[in-house]
Amino acid sequence: MKFTWKGKWKKGEIIIEAESLEELENALKTLSSEEEMREFSEAYNVSIPKITTVENCAGAIRALMRTDWGQKPRSMIEIKKALEANALYFSKGTLSGTLTAMVKRGEFQRMKEEGRWKYLTKNETKADRNEDKEDV
Question: Which CATH number is 57-135 given?
Answer without folding.
Answer: 1.10.10.10
